[in-house]
Amino acid sequence: MRRISWLVMSLVLVTLLQVPFAGAAETAARPASEAAAQQIPVLTHAEAVAELKRLQSEQDRVKQLASNASGDLRLGDLNETLRQLDEDVDKLTASLTPQRAQLQAQVDLLGPPPDAATAREAPAVVRQRAELNARKAQLDDELKQAADSKDNIAHLQDQLAKLQRSRLKDQLALRSDSILNPSFWMPLFRLGEEDRTRLGNFTDEIKPVLRVAWEPGQRGKTLLLLCLALAVWSLGRRLLERGLAWFCLHQLPETRLRRSALALATALTTVVTTALAVRIAYAAFTGGEELPAGLQDLMAEIAKLTMTSALIAGLGRALLCTQHPSWRLPALADPVALAMKPFPTLLAGLLLLAGTLEQFNRMADTSVQVTLLGRGLVSLVVVLVIGAALLRANRVRSELVAAGERPEERATLAGLIHAAVTLIVIVGFGALLVGYISFARFLTYELVWFDIVLCSLYLLTQLTRDVCEALFSAQHRSGRIIKQLFGVDDSHLEQVSTVLSGIGASLLLLVAVLALLTGGFGTTPADLLNTLLTVLGGEKLRSMNIMPDRILNAVIALVVGIWLLRSVRRWLDAELLPKLCKEPGLRASLITLFSNVGYVLLVLLTLSLLGVKWENLAWIVSALSVGIGFGLQEIVKNFVSGLILLTERPVKVGDMVSLAGVEGDIRRINVRATEIQLGDRSTVIVPNSQLISQNVRNVTMSNSTQGVATLQLTFPLNTDPEAVRDLLLDVYRQHETILDIPAPSVTFSQLAPNGITLSVTGYVSSPRIAAGTKSDLLFEILKRLRAANISLSEPQTLRVENMAALGM
């Protein structure tokens, strides 16, 4: 136990060595590679043949080692070997290609051999041409062998990747002791002889590094550098954060960009200061000396874990922002943010310690029991910390509700994410209790990866939108400069800002989805489902040609696709289209058309992920053709009519139409039918085919801004038409809804035995108020006519009575 504790503390110190070491190694390797690229050695035929034989023998050795490899470490070494062989093949090709080009130039200079019947060539020239052609053939063969070696190396790399995935699935299906079993914790108190020997051997590699750093001549320098590293990591981080905060508050425009930039600065400050402190600590322990090969490999893995922990702590501090609640990006209540404040840092620290122990077990190649102990500690740390954070946040929200305060509003997506994280925590803890340690470790690592990707996506998306909004705002200097350079107005600036922010958010979302689907720790969700089915006996499903990985990929694509379509539709409806198009009907048509096309493509994508081949859909097409001929004919006709309405747009959303006695406003054009709202607020569902095949009166199509209020009145023949005309015009002009331009007019429509007919016309601002205006005008006209003793003409009727027959 004491040895393990000492080793863990030593590794925590040595963990700080790798990041600068990797950076120094890359820096040192880059000039070497550039120098090698600039000065390519010229190989002779014997040297090229020897190099090809070496490459082939190395590939055979990798194949043999891969068949007997034990553990991920050996497979990682083989991958590194293949990568080096691939570089050697590139160097060999780069050396032989110029020689081949030079020989071809010499052959072209000699020219083709002359015809023996017409001329004879000197023997020296013939011999030289033969030698050049022979050497060129040798180079062609060597280049072909090099190309074959490169293809073989790529194939071996693919096979190793599949082998790693297969071993991971086998490890996930491995069941061991539960964490409640005392035997699971036994390695903490008593190690086996084999594990003690392996730990001792690895300790012998660490001790010289620490001993050299603690020599009397180096002790003061080491302590000074360690204190400097600690100061940079703590005090330097605070000073850098304050400087960046001052820059964001005083140099950036007064927009939301300040908050998002400050959050990004907080996260980057934590990572940058940690990396700088690591570099100083590396110099303190090594003094520029290289570490042993085994320790270098260990430090490479722990360096990734160190930066991951720093990123977790930085993102937590940036998004919670408890010191300045007004700068907080997410909509979190202050008590909830304060309650969750210690958990990101706690998770980062415990994950670093537990992950370091796990990497140490991997490097020392300890027994299965000790390895499972390290994995169990990592899983238990993540499950307990994240679970405690969820419980504490929920308790604080419940206390706010009980106190009569309203907690933050949560979107549906946020609720789904919260439920998914809670479910993963419960399943992971249950796996630890049952004994599936490797499976629990996989779940917890993927949960951490999911949190990192999600938080990074949220932060970068907010920053992208705020940058575009501030950059193209007409109220700021950058926007005014763009207006002057390109001669655009404010509306175009706003449109460009919306489009660019949407493109940036879409790209970030695509990268995040790819990162989640490909897996953060060497596996994919399909591998997880296959593992679960292996545990539960999924071979029966495969025997029935049911592929779980395809089903999972199809379900994920369907869910993500539906969410993406709805998100893009909301963005189009709320942000982009209102700035690009002022007409509501056109916006509604474009959104509906986008949704229809998007869902069709999504269904096709889902079918392809399920493994459905289009050549196997002939029977489906045949069945559909029969169905269309009978019951689906009307549905297909209405569907096609709906597409025509959305593309040609004879009627659109917002138009006032009249069709077969139905008059109202179009509210929605669906795939099958169109919704028309009547004057009494009721809705009539009209099939789309009727709007295409029947006569439709579109009141607002030609002139959507004006309506006509026309009345026809009949007066007796003895009525003065000029007096009536003046009275009617006066009534129209005095009405508030009648427009002055065009002016109202009276037309003498008809002269008949029963009277004269006058038609009075006035224009209103909208066709929808024409009916109400006519009603008001009739009331006023009748009132004026009675006051002027002018009557309307009574309709004449022919009265026929029964009369006695003549001669009776």
Automatic annotation (TrEMBL):
Residues 710-791 form the Mechanosensitive ion channel MscS C-terminal domain. Residues 1-24 form the signal peptide. The chain crosses the membrane at residues 261-282, 302-320, 372-391, 412-436, 442-460, 499-521, 551-568, 588-611, 617-636. InterPro entries: DUF3772, LSM_dom_sf, MS_channel_C, MscS-like_channel, MscS_beta-dom_sf, MscS_channel_2nd, MscS_channel_C_sf, MscS_channel_TM-2. Keywords: Cell membrane, Coiled coil, Membrane, Signal, Transmembrane, Transmembrane helix. GO terms for cellular component: plasma membrane. SUPFAM superfamilies: Mechanosensitive channel protein MscS (YggB), C-terminal domain, Mechanosensitive channel protein MscS (YggB), transmembrane region, Sm-like ribonucleoproteins. It is found in: Cell membrane. It is a multi-pass membrane protein. Residues 635-700 form the Mechanosensitive ion channel MscS domain. Residues 143-205 form the DUF3772 domain. Residues 45-95, 129-166 form a coiled coil. Belongs to the MscS (TC 1.A.23) family. This is Small-conductance mechanosensitive channel. It comes from Cupriavidus agavae.
